[in-house]
Amino acid sequence: MWEIIRSTTPEIVWAGIKYTIPIAVISFAIGLVIAAITALIRISKPRGNGLVKGIWYLGKLIFSFYVWLFRSTPLLVQLFIVFFGLPNIGIQFNAWTAGIITFSLNTGAYASETIRGAISSLPSSQWEAAYSLGMTYSQVLFLIIFPQALRVALPPLSNSFIGLVKDTSLASSITILEMFMVSQQIASHNYQPLLMYSIVAAVYAVFCTILTILQHLLEKRANRYEVAEGE
Predict the structure, then answer these.
(1) Rounded distance between C-alpha atoms, residue 208 and residue 212, angstroms
(2) pTM
(3) Where are the transmembrane segments (predicted)?
(4) How many C-beta atoms lie closer than 10 Å to residue 75's C-beta?
(5) pLDDT level of residue 209 (50, 70, 90 thresholds)
(6) CA distance 140 to 124
């Protein structure tokens, strides 16, 4: 048993470093961009004439439907639709692209609610005070609101990233050679499924523990001024 652990663990860890972490990082980065755009559109207020308002309402409806769709359906089903289903209508992606698209859209839907909630939690008096100083909407948003909202949203967003790292195990279902799929392949040769799945579970636990420690350090840094005031 110890010989199997010694010989297979490096291979699983390497698959995590080469595939699992990059998929998670790329998907999360793209997902955050999608989330920020979605949240801003959903909390913004229409301005201008009737045509502009009509376009705004249509955009808000589309993004609201997107959030509802991806939060209401299983991630595994989404992966299957993008990788196995879309080729039936002439849209085909390789496994990596399909995985990143799906993970990004799924992350964006959930993270948009986190960002929207963080922005909405800030008192409206901050907007009013900034406007009274002659600041534009964009200046208020990016210089005052966003930095504070980021601090509020940091813990749930960090949890979302850790969850995404674990969710990448579903990528094996569309032939991406990440950690879980490597453990399956090894188990099919040495006939030790319990041992191999326990090893990959332990590797996931180590990765997530490291990310949790980094999360706590980021939160501590983000709240350093608040702690100083409390003292």
Answers:
(1) 6
(2) 0.88
(3) 20-41, 194-214
(4) 16
(5) very high
(6) 11
Please, is 167 exposed, middle or buried when counting C-beta atoms within 10 Å of its C-beta (0-12, 13-18, 19+)? buried
Give 189's contacts (C-beta < 8 A, 6+ positions apart). none
Question: What Rg do the C-alpha atoms of the chain give, in angstroms?
Answer: 22
- What is the amino acid identity at position 101? I
Which pLDDT score is estimated for 225? 62
CA angle 132, 134, 135 (to 5 degrees): 105
CATH code of domain 2-230: 1.10.3720.10
How many helices (H) and strands (E) the chain has is answered by 11, 0
Please enumerate in sequence order all residues whose Cβ is within 8 A of that of 128, keeping only pairs 6 or more positions apart, or say none: none
What pLDDT was estimated at residue 38?
94
* Residues found in the chain: 231
Is residue 127 within 8 Å of residue 166, measured between CB atoms? no
pLDDT tens for 53-77 read 788 888 889 999 999 999 999 999 9
- Tell me the pLDDT tens digit for each residue of 94-138: 999 999 999 999 999 999 999 999 988 888 888 888 888 888 878
CB 23 within 8 Å of CB 99: yes
Burial bucket for residue 2 (CB in 10 Å: 0-12, 13-18, 19+): exposed
> Which of 56, 81, 44 is closest to 170 using CA atoms?
81
What is the Cα–Cα distance from 230 to 83, expressed in whole angstroms? 51
